[in-house]
Amino acid sequence: MVFEEFVVPDPPVAAALALATLTVAGLLYTVRPVVSQETVLAFVPWMVSGAVLHVLYQMGVALGETVVPGVPAAVLSAPSVYLTAFVLMGLSWVGATVVAPERVARLLGLGGAATAVLTVGYAVRVGTDRFALDPIPPMFGLLGSLALAALLYLVVRFWRPYAVSEARYVGGLVLFAHVFDAVTTAVGVELLDATERSTFPRLILDIAADLPTADLLGEAWLFVVVKMAIATAIVVLFSGYPETEPTEGNLFFGFIAAIGLGPGVHNFFLFVLGV
């Protein structure tokens, strides 16, 4: 197993995806939807969908065929899949804002949940038919992430109570997202012989591998610690941002959560499905 490197789509696909992204961004700028804490939580199932779409892409690479008929494989590769997920979520967000502006977060979340169920269900179906499922290590990783994130949340609440009261839901989401990313990476590296190819994680893993603790603790523990420290620092330093600037602050926390939760969910399903 490997954590895949970035893939650059062919020019026509890249141009079409860029145009779709700019169009959706323009529509969002035009309708100016409210970005609340609830809106950021509604982003979560869309993050899950994007991550699983990339797993489907990697299934296709492993099998040497397209597993999502009618969809150019390149739009599901990294980093293009981030834009693909944004386009899908953005269209739903615009539609919800136009149709029912007082229920945007609820409709956006429901649309995301339906999309996530479909993508996860399809990935599980393909995985069951074509791969050897291995859910136990990733499930331990998920449970460990929940426990570790809860502990970290309590530590932040005790150490800097104002950060928890100000950042609220989005702060907790950021903490869990990056703990989940770190722990699933550790599961892959230490238990499943996965190879991390992203520059920053690989650097941290290499540093830990050269420490005297490597034989006892492995090479992934330092990455978990670094990710927890970064997530905690962001929550503490920017906790007041969503209150002073609700739109920009909540979007900031949503973005920070996405760059942790997306890879974490991707790792989880990649390992569960045995790709």
Write a concise synopsis of the structure shown.
The chain has 275 residues and is mainly α. It has helices spanning 11-31, 37-63, 80-99, 104-130, 136-159, 161-191, 199-209, 214-217, 221-237, 241-244, 246-272. It folds into two domains: 1-131, no CATH class; 134-275, no CATH class.
Detail the topology: elements first, then pairings.
Blueprint: H1 11-31, H2 37-63, H3 80-99, H4 104-130, H5 136-159, H6 161-191, H7 199-209, H8 214-217, H9 221-237, H10 241-244, H11 246-272
Give a written overview of the molecule:
It is built from eleven helices and no strands. It folds into two domains: 1-131, no CATH class; 134-275, no CATH class. The chain has helices at residues 11-31, 37-63, 80-99, 104-130, 136-159, 161-191, 199-209, 214-217, 221-237, 241-244, 246-272. The longest helix is centred in the middle third of the chain and has 31 residues, at 161-191. It is globular and about 55 Å long. The chain starts with 10 loop residues before the first helix and ends with a helix. It is mainly alpha-helical and 275 residues long.
Radius of gyration: 19 Å
Please state the average pLDDT score: 93
Number of strands: 0
Largest sheet: number of strands, sense, barrel closure:
none
Low-confidence residue ranges: none
Taken as a percent bin, the fraction of beta residues is under 5%
Q: Which percent bin holds the helix content?
A: over 70%
N-to-C SSE series?
HHHHHHHHHHH
Q: In terms of structural class, how would the helical and strand content be classed?
A: mainly alpha
The global form is globular
Q: How many domains, in number, for the residues?
A: 2
Distance between the termini: 7 Å
What is the count of helical runs?
11
